[in-house]
Amino acid sequence: MLNTLSGRFLILTTVFVMLAEVLIFVPSIARFREDFLLDRLERAQIASLALLADDMLSNELEAELLANAGVFNVVLRRDEVRQLMLASPIPGQVSDTFDLRDASPWVLIRDAVEQFFSAENRIVRVIGEPVRDAGLLIEVTMETDPLRDAMIDYGVRIFWLSLVISVITAVLLFLAVRVFLVRPIKGVVGYMQRYARAPEDAHGIIQPHAGVKELREAEEALQMLQTELTHALKQRERLAQLGEAVAKVSHDLRNILTSAQLFTDRIEASEDPLVRRMAPKLVNSITRAVSLCESTLAFGRAEEPAPTLTMVRLRDITQDVVSSESLALEGSNIEIRNEVPEDMIVRADPEQMFRVIMNLVRNARQALEMSDRAGEITVAAEECENAWCIEVRDNGTGLPPKAQENLFTPFQGGVRKGGAGLGLAISSELVRGHGGELLLKSTGEDGTTFEIRLPKGDGTF
């Protein structure tokens, strides 16, 4: 109970209300003391008026009047004449004088606090103004014990009243918090627990209905998070199923391609010049296809295999890419240019880097073919300060905004109709395996440029 939100709110409310009552109590007790003293002055004035009406009061009646007024003597000043109206023996010396005529609130509070915490019975003189203009001033002498007893009694009654008010207020606020805060929060927690048990079930997604603005914003944020997570889980499940299917296809395709490799020796022995010229490229293509199938099978078990980094001549890799893609460009108005320096050596896995550059060049070719315009694809590279920078650029129409938002996300970054959007996702993963990064450097009406940054040294840029 006490460690719940509503329980702690109940305790804090009670404490704060009591604190507020304490702050009110101090000036209240000062006001009570002032009213008590003024009441004594008014009683004393009434007693003195009885004497003025009849000068021949007996000692017994005079003592009774003073007892009823709660004072020892009464002095009244009328017409600049100070008269001792009523008097009785004073049991001690007067220790203090309190003038209520021009006392400030701070003086009244100070005197009340001192009186409240002082247990000593003292004789004090109190001066005030007579009521109804019955004179210039009235002065009485009295004991402080009755005043202190009345103040304590008043303080106890105020304490119990404050306590009752605090409890009632706290209970009402407790019920309000239960209805307007705790119950909606428990509802949100219930939705979260239900969703955690079956995140793929769309019925577990929260439906915002809270009336409190902040809680509704929390519910809407949770709904968005659950929707995106459910979508991601479904996509992950589809990816797992696709991976299993691709692994099966790759297994069978690898066997077919391995059989095809057995015939390459005969092809290389052909005396046909065209066959002898094309045979090495065919052998290299089949070898790469077998390697790709083996890598796909490895990916089905885990992730992309770690790259085998060696110092390689980059132009050899880019030239293989250009030669492979040029076969698909025969008869088209698209040209591929290889501007990588002849002597540029980089640290990379040749097969993985071939796949990365091939994906970028193929994407550029397909984008130019979709635009149905003459185009040019350029592969270039240079040595930057801490990295080797490789660029693949085209002069197409640029990438649409939707593709830019999910560029490296599988199944979401595709531009070509029917494309899966896997090429850039795979390329980005391969480049990250090298410790580098694949960036969209620019895109627009003048074309698109992708940059591969391969780190030198310890892998930091």
TrEMBL record:
Its EC number is 2.7.13.3. PROSITE patterns: HIS_KIN. Keywords: ATP-binding, Coiled coil, Kinase, Membrane, Nucleotide-binding, Phosphoprotein, Transferase, Transmembrane, Transmembrane helix, Two-component regulatory system. The keyword Phosphoprotein applies. InterPro entries: HATPase_C_sf (IPR036890), HATPase_dom (IPR003594), His_kinase_dom (IPR005467), HisK_dim/P_dom (IPR003661), HisK_dim/P_sf (IPR036097), Sig_transdc_His_kin-like_C (IPR004358). It catalyses: ATP + protein L-histidine = ADP + protein N-phospho-L-histidine. It holds the Pfam family HATPase_c. It is an enzyme of class 2 (transferase). GO terms for molecular function: ATP binding; phosphorelay sensor kinase activity. Residues 215-242 form a coiled coil. Residues 248-458 form the Histidine kinase domain. It comes from the Bacteria. The chain crosses the membrane at residues 6-30, 158-181. This is histidine kinase. It comes from Ruegeria marisrubri. The lineage of its organism: Bacteria, Pseudomonadati, Pseudomonadota, Alphaproteobacteria, Rhodobacterales.
